[in-house]
Amino acid sequence: MVARCGAFPRHSGLCIRMTNYMTRNSNIEVLFACEGVKAKDWLSAFANIRGDLNIQVSPDVGACESIQFGVAWNNPRGFWRRFPNLRAIFSLGAGVDGLLSDPELPVDIPIVRMLDGALADEMAEFVMARVIHHHRLLHRYEVQQSKNSWSVHRPPMANQRVVGIMGLGALGSRCANELKQRGFHVRGWARTCKELSDIDIFYGWDRLADFVTGCEILVCLLPRTLETEGILSSRLFSRLAPGACLINVGRGAHLVESDLLDAIDRGFIEAATLDVFHDEPLPETHPFWTCSAIRIFPHVAAFTRPETASKVISDNIDRILSGKSPVGVVERVLGY
Ligand code: NDP
Ligand code: OXD
Asked: Which residues of the chain carry a pLDDT beneath 70?
């Protein structure tokens, strides 16, 4: 999640031109264009680590030709086309589906996703919390309380609990490792083969059915791409262990919403933790709000923090300036 500032209107006077953070010899021109994000915190974070960035904050942009680097989130279509001398665009989020959906995105520069250990730490915390919640059947007690009902449920031990992680990238592999260390029986699914110790690895579409079959807690940490949209569907749910739990922290578009409600009705899924949605904020009238088997979180599993992520971007700027490739370049053909 990219931390948002609710009361930060895009065209307000709070959009600061970064001249007071510049040094006299500054010559690296950066445009911070992150819709709905509190720019002030980012400007301070960059200023704390270096003084040679001249950061402008959208929409207050001077000469478009001077901009060398863009920091992006939630931009309107065609936004980045206006800057002819861009050398890279850094996404504030780990997910770049929004950025890549712009058909007018410059084609000849790297798009770089957010790869920050602190983001992975937070995601691992959230996923661990929710896996333990479902593993210990705490969702049942939440429902019981609303009915004044006292009934004890005995969960299996962690090493008998099969947790499946879809997506074994920066975030998924971190979660898989931590869950393994916590004692769960962990399996993971990715596009290409991986080596993660003591984790059962499945890769490619032809192993998806084997991966899912018998999973008791399924965590989705895939990026949204043309291939992965709608992957959390009836077909997949029907292969899970009966009464399985779902944790979706990838993107809302991974889930076929009506299929989840149907799987809950039919007992394929006992409980779900959802942090991402087709429409965010989730509309007030959405049926998920009133489904007792679903817990809703407003896209808060992991936050991109200015304190650490500014250093990630800064290091990548240095890499580019010294002729190296930045870390985290998106493969546009794959969409992540
Ligand atoms: P990465 O790009 O590092 O990892 C993506 C993983 O998904 C890789 O293991 C990749 O396989 C796998 N994958 C992609 N396409 C397929 C496919 N067709 N079949 C099987 N596996 C596939 O991403 P991150 O781990 O950094 O982030 C994952 C996602 O988490 C983001 O895209 C974003 O949507 C979401 N996110 C959510 C947040 C929240 O607060 N809810 C916060 C941050 C991110 P391979 O390794 O073989 O390439
Ligand atoms: C993020 C994301 O990093 O959801 O916030 O991609």
From this structure: 3-26
